[in-house]
Amino acid sequence: MAKGIPTREEDYAQWYIELVKQADLAENSDVRGCMVIKPYGYSIWEKMQQALDKMFKDTGHVNAYFPLFVPKSMFEAEEKNAEGFAKECAIVTHYRLKNDPDNKGKLIVDPNAKLEEELVVRPTSEAIIWNTYKKWIQSYRDLPILINQWANVVRWEMRTRLFLRTAEFLWQEGHTAHATKEEAIAETEQMLDVYAAFAEEFMALPVIKGRKSENERFPGALDTYCIEAMMQDGKALQAGTSHFLGQNFANAFDVKFTSKEGKLEYVWGTSWGVSTRLIGALIMAHSDDDGLILPPKLAPIHVVIVPIFKTEEEFNRISDKANEIAKALRKQGYSVKYDNRDTQKPGFKFAEWELKGVPVRIAIGPRDLENGTVEVARRDTKSKQVIALAELEQSIPALLDDIQQNIYNRALTFRTNNTTAVNTYEEFKKVLAEKGGFVSAHWDGTPETEQKIKEETKATIRCIPLDAKEEEGKCIYSGQPSKRRVLFAQAY
Amino acid sequence: MAKGIPTREEDYAQWYIELVKQADLAENSDVRGCMVIKPYGYSIWEKMQQALDKMFKDTGHVNAYFPLFVPKSMFEAEEKNAEGFAKECAIVTHYRLKNDPDNKGKLIVDPNAKLEEELVVRPTSEAIIWNTYKKWIQSYRDLPILINQWANVVRWEMRTRLFLRTAEFLWQEGHTAHATKEEAIAETEQMLDVYAAFAEEFMALPVIKGRKSENERFPGALDTYCIEAMMQDGKALQAGTSHFLGQNFANAFDVKFTSKEGKLEYVWGTSWGVSTRLIGALIMAHSDDDGLILPPKLAPIHVVIVPIFKTEEEFNRISDKANEIAKALRKQGYSVKYDNRDTQKPGFKFAEWELKGVPVRIAIGPRDLENGTVEVARRDTKSKQVIALAELEQSIPALLDDIQQNIYNRALTFRTNNTTAVNTYEEFKKVLAEKGGFVSAHWDGTPETEQKIKEETKATIRCIPLDAKEEEGKCIYSGQPSKRRVLFAQAY
Question: Which of A22, A434, B335, B481 has its CA 20 to 30 A from that of B369?
């Protein structure tokens, strides 16, 4: 157990926060609700960005950049969207500071520099982007528009938690415009698939693809698709959303196009996003009481090499070999750290790199040099094996692949074991209270029932799974007929 | 001459703006002073980011992310820095909107959601970062810190111009902390060299490395280094700056460390940045009356292929060949666009890709197929040559290298021809009025003289070149003794 970090059993919430801090991923800043993403945490985000950006480009999208500020009148144009975000917006009202006449060296807001119209710091960019698309779209020939933006957004959350919920966060937001409803829905679904593939292949995180109930829909969307993942405390975490906007924003911003048939029609839209929240999901899904467990495909460092030595002569001989190994692995495309600090003992180093979640550790001592071997430890299972130097270049890639797969399998097994189908409300409450996890149950489809269940159990409908089987059933709460099960859980 | 774009001769400023718009690089948004960077413009920025990010990492830097907002009390801690930016800051004063009781569907700022302390939208991040470094630095072992941030910043400029000066812009800002003055100065100089290398190797833009006079120094810096480039109208454009901050921010934020000798000392700092302004520089330095001329190393598309055909049968045969060529060139790492639109004539396409600055155009007609050749045109000189298909894979890389070099040489020749050494103020004014460009002259080193020259001629000291020769001279304005020439110019 790492120093000062409670076990997951003892205090899951605190375990998470301590892990984020002690592994040097992020910390709270002195700006309310805003975090500092430290270099190690940011390098995970960079890995995520690279993989996602490639997936977006491979599906025909391009990047662009739109303003940080949204004038109030533009912001309020799509009423549902505005209503959904109005209560958590940072508002710019002035554009200048001046010297405080009563307090030398201090500044005050210059009352003469009040903006005629206030600016909202974007909580999401549909408004500013559709206001721009209006100028870009006249004909069906201008469609589709397939744009993504990497940006910061601000939502004035009252209760924040590093990565999971912060006032400012980093994300990507795709905003596309289409000539037909069908094409827009296909895009919405395609991007959900991209997110699911990213979560499973890169984050080693199994996800359920589904649609949100009306209550949980993005403000201004006709339909919200999502991927939901299970954390180790059994709670759900929404890891990405893809929205079918219908013609709502086209209506609000009067974005019309002339169709092939010469008719003037409103444009169809989608938007979709994932954020630095994914880093929180990554940690909470895989890590253990000793620290992070990072999937190799997103780990900033794949392999750490630790020398075990007593004399300087030993250190020098080991270092030669370590550098040789590092060079060979780097040539294969891996990121390798040789921890040659002489200020720390091997045990300290082992614990530190375990805390930081480096997938593979290689230890080399004098006897290894004699035998032509090294000791290789994997972070996920903490098992060790002795491997001949000659085999290392073959073993490491296979080991990393195995770790990636094993982490995924473990998370999938955990989810399977913690997903329970129930048929009565009694059962439902019992499972939530005693076991937690995902609960698969029939629901009558009304927002009222969902709201009541939420009030009584804190569980919400995470999604209506895309692969839900058609089956006759009765709503666990109202007894009304239902055609398919939905997934309930308490959520982050 | 491209449609609706004045020549450089007719109206250089308007030529620039029209080029930015018509080449689809950027446009003004409906948010005062903020631009929309369109996909084609953004893809140039992505290329710049990739190259710079690699150079930063190769010199030992890592990326991180700090908050967008700076509380007012934190902002004002370093007084000179605060004073320098106070007049152009966007200020967040509230965190919520509410429904307007008098106006259904409209929102107003909720007076009950006034912040206790106003937040400044970062115009630059020294304050928030040094406030954070205070927590990270105790001992010399914590140093150096070598961090870069890719971010948006806001400076409330009254007169804006796409890319060159906008209220919000994208940039990178490096912020480093060191144990010694010497190390901090070495870092400042190293990053200036990185910027100069980037400008010259990637942007094909020759730059003068130098130091700013006191008047032009970054607020809060002890010394500001810069790279200055010449635009085609003879004006100077500051393309990047690297600041030696001394212990100013460490003092302001009380950042001390215990040295190897056990003494408590203030930390030394640097900061350095380049922004989307570089895209403006790129355009203004190289482009011509027909449109952009992009250096191959930053061009989003390296090669465009245009088919010349009359019948569908011809089109199909040409397309087969074009796709084959595209595939081969892509395999070599080039970005290739096959413009197979049947809605536009070749002449239209030629003009469009010239406007967009694609370095190489390949045209293929039926006769080319028979002869096993293509027509290759280069954007920089507009010259054409017939090249055998078999030689294409060798010719194109060489041609692109040649274009990169030629653009650089052309800009260097232009700068050389437009740099004039003068020894009297009469000469100085005459050169500025009649010829423009850089004027190399002696200066007495006082801010007063610089200010007067600026008032009388609009020219400022762009820099004191690092390679300025020591020579005895007399200030052109005051006649006082001077030890080296400095570079004057009117500037963007």
Answer: B335
